[in-house]
TrEMBL record:
Organism whose genome encodes this protein: Sinosporangium album
Alphabetical keyword list: Hydrolase, Membrane, Metal-binding, Metalloprotease, Protease, Transmembrane, Transmembrane helix, Zinc
Gene3D superfamilies: Metalloproteases ('zincins'), catalytic domain
Name this polypeptide is given: Zn-dependent protease with chaperone function
Protein family per UniProt: Belongs to the peptidase M48 family.
Length: 305
């Protein structure tokens, strides 16, 4: 029962941590660190919630969730020759609930991955037909559309795409700032950060904590890309470019791509009136907490009951 109780407590701690992090003011001062903590909370919650149910279900084996599951599968496969342990009704219900939850989480993650990859493949095929190169923006695909659009299509060969309307709307400095932002998305593979949260939101659309987590991570990765962009350009130029996009009713970002239109006003305020970055000691403590959370759930799966 110790393993099940510890995993259940860890799942509750992760939920409370996500609820608190959703409104934490320090997160915008260190978006990379905050995203790392969000990832740790998400992984820990999934493993802890399912592990608590399975640890309780397999408690009669006395070997914890993972090894108890192994012995249960072996005994079921061999017809009980290795010595089966009967499970009462509450443990059977916990086993069904835990396996169902684990299967749903894996299924939605795999499904979201395939859906995203398919959408990107179709969009790349479309870009191959309609996009063109422009000597003024080397390495960028230009689409002849009057609306304002700028986004990144992530992948092994990421592509940054802008519309002709964007080239006409922005000044050279503003365009340089937007392209640096989109290049940061491609280089740091922010799509991989977002994917698990989008999948979790599909699995639990009724959860306000999950929806809040997805929204927070979306905004934080935009701020992280802003931070990378302003290493190569003026923050004010990026801010004015974002405002121009908002005033011009920017074209929605295609499915599977990463745009620059999330949380515009919060990002503009952050770019124009920057606050000091968090001290290194605080960021180290947050990363240490994230690492501890990430390791704790798998270890508790091995804790004997």
């Amino acid at each position: 029962m110790i393993a099940a109780a510890a995993l259940a407590a860890l799942a509750i701690i992760s939920t409370l941590g996500a609820w608190r992090l959703n409104s934490a003011r320090w997160a915008t001062r260190a978006p990379h660190t905050a995203v790392l903590l969000w990832q740790a909370l998400g992984v820990t919650w999934g493993l802890a919630a399912t592990g608590a149910l399975l640890a309780y279900a397999f408690e009669p084996y006395g070997k914890g969730a993972l090894l108890g599951m192994r012995d249960f599968v072996v005994s079921a496969y061999t017809g009980g020759e290795g010595g089966t342990v009967p499970l009462d009704l509450p443990r059977v219900l916990a086993l069904i609930s835990g396996m169902t939850m684990l299967s749903v989480l894996i299924a939605v993650l795999v499904g979201a991955t395939f859906q995203t990859l398919r959408a990107r493949r179709r969009h790349r095929m479309l870009l191959a037909l309609i996009a063109r190169e422009d000597p003024g923006v080397p390495g960028v695909r230009v689409v002849d559309h009057p609306g304002a659009a700028a986004y990144c299509v992530p992948g092994l060969r990421s592509q940054v795409v802008v519309s002709a309307g964007t080239l006409a709307l922005l000044s050279p400095d503003e365009l340089r700032a937007v392209l640096a932002h989109e290049s940061a998305h491609a280089r740091e593979r922010h799509d991989l950060v977002l994917l698990p949260f989008a999948a979790l939101c599909r699995a639990m659309p009724f959860s306000g904590v999950v929806r809040g987590a997805q929204s927070s991570v979306e905004l934080l990765i935009e701020m992280a890309a802003d931070d990378r962009a302003r290493e190569h350009c003026s923050p004010r130029r990026l801010a004015t470019a974002l405002l121009r996009f908002g005033a011009a009713a920017a074209v929605p970002t295609p499915s599977g791509a990463l745009g620059a239109h999330t949380g515009v006003m919060a990002r503009v305020e952050r770019l124009i009136s920057p606050v000091p970055i968090l001290p290194k000691r605080f960021r180290f403590l947050v990363m240490l907490l994230a690492a501890t959370l990430t390791v704790s759930a798998p270890l508790l799966w091995l804790l004997p009951s």
